[in-house]
Amino acid sequence: MSMPLVQLGVTQQPPTSKISDLLENTPPRDGQTARHWFEVLLDHISAFSSSDRNKLLGLPFVPMGPPSALKFLPPTKCYLNQGSKPKLYAKLSVFVNFGDRANDFLCACGLKNQVVIEDIAEVLIENPQQFFDFAGGYEDFLVELRKIAYQRRDISNPTLHKMSDKHALLGVRRQKAEDQDEWHYNHKFLTSQEVTIVNDSDDYQLFSDRLFITPQEEEVLEHTYININLW
């Protein structure tokens, strides 16, 4: 037996636009309320047209955080919490679980079951320095960058284009102080046009303190940077 919509403060058979307006203007403000709302709405999901569902994909109505720092996210920006997950993903992504029936409603609205490489690339593009810090620094960041490189074919062309155009690619520059013999390495996020691919090691020796290059001895990353540059 379906749960009546009157529980949400609307008439029993309202136009679906009324329901989307409710979620847009007065979304549930805590987990318990959200669970109840989503369970009620699951029983009426068949009434939503394709355009209605498309609107729900982008509506920020999933509550997150304590009342003092409450924010709302669209279902498409959330992932179903199914237990264990990589620590980095837990830091970079938002995982939710409101119970089976409520989750089913959110899945119909775009909730994702798992983090895929396209999502990781998008997070990197959005805030590369935060990604770097959450990964744990240079070496651990390279591990994640290699994953993106190896799975590049699973990343959409628009995302690859953004990766090329924005300051999302890690460049490395080595410099040596006048009174020191050791090289010091600087890291910076750059566009594909700002990262140099080293083809001539002799020339590089002359200008290495001025150029940001791809991480050295990382052939898969170099090939990926070259391909991304084509976008």
Automatic annotation (TrEMBL):
Residues 9-19 have a biased composition (Polar residues). Residues 1-21 are annotated as: Disordered. InterPro entries: DUF3684. Pfam families: DUF3684. It comes from the Eukaryota. This is Uncharacterized protein.
